[in-house]
Amino acid sequence: MQAGLRERKKAKTRAAIQRHALRLFQEQGYAATTVDQIAAAAEVSQSTFFRYFPTKEDVVLLDDYDPRMLQALQEQPPDVPPVRAIRGAIRRVFEAIDAADWEREQQRQRLIQTVPELQARAMQQYVKTIELLAVALTEREGLPIDDFNARVLAGAVIGASIGATMHAVGGEYELSDMDLVDQALGLLEDGLPLGGS
Q1: Residues whose CB falls within 8 Å of the CB of residue 168, separated by 6 or more in sequence, listed in order
Q2: Region 166-194: what's the mean pLDDT?
Q3: Does 132 lie in the same domain as 46?
Q4: Within this chain, do residues 48 and 78 fall inside the same structural domain, yes or no?
Q5: Is 73 a member of any domain?
Q6: Backbone phi and psi for residue 53, each to the nearest 5 degrees, phi listed first
Q7: 154 Cβ partners below 8 Å, 6+ apart?
Q8: What CATH number is given to the structural domain containing 17?
Q9: Are the C-beta atoms of 164 and 183 separated by less than 8 Å?
Q10: Whereabouts does the entry annotate DNA binding, in residue ranges (predicted)?
């Protein structure tokens, strides 16, 4: 019980730091905003900031969606094929996003698209997401953790998701873009036939 309360407090502090950081980045610009300013706005010490976020970049790149999606994937029925299970997990996570969370996600994406150092780190995060998804797939399917096919499938899922939403780069992501991600994963599930509408 105590551990659960502690984890909730940590999550609340982490979210508050990120919320204040995104607000300051929007008001002052990413480069002009310091860790000291973020910590002061969130009413935490600088050492507390660094306990939650190793760098200023990390406060933007924190993504709560990967853990939620992996949890939702674990909860899919075991007899559902892998890509269909991933589609179900993504749908479940994005149907639960409220307007405030989505606005924060759009702020994050705008920053990532306009700040070169964040763009570079975002690419590293895609690799990490592929690794996390590959491990989740191997656990789900009872395969060795380094299974080649699971890693390739995870990479294909992330690539299909990026391909489906490339139109939004430099613009706004909409929740309806998740329909395009689902459509892209449907193509993946069907063997990626070309020439569709």
Answers
A1: 109, 174, 177
A2: 77
A3: no
A4: no
A5: yes
A6: -135, 110
A7: 130, 131, 133, 134, 137
A8: 1.10.10.60
A9: yes
A10: 34-53
Q: How many CA atoms lie within 13 A of 159 on its CB side?
A: 9
The sign of the CA dihedral 114, 159, 57, 41 is positive
Number of domains within the chain: 2
CA–CA dist 176, 123 (Å, integer): 23
The answer to the question of residue 195 being in a domain is no
Residues 24 and 83 in one domain: no
Q: What is the token pair recorded at 93?
A: 């996570």
d(CA 155, CA 88) in angstroms, rounded, equals 18
| CATH number of the domain within which 149 lies | 1.10.357.10
Identity of the amino acid at 191: G
- Dump pLDDT digits (tens) for 92-120: 998 898 888 888 888 888 888 889 989 88
Mean pLDDT of 171-180: 68
CA dihedral 113, 98, 93, 125 (to 10 degrees): 20
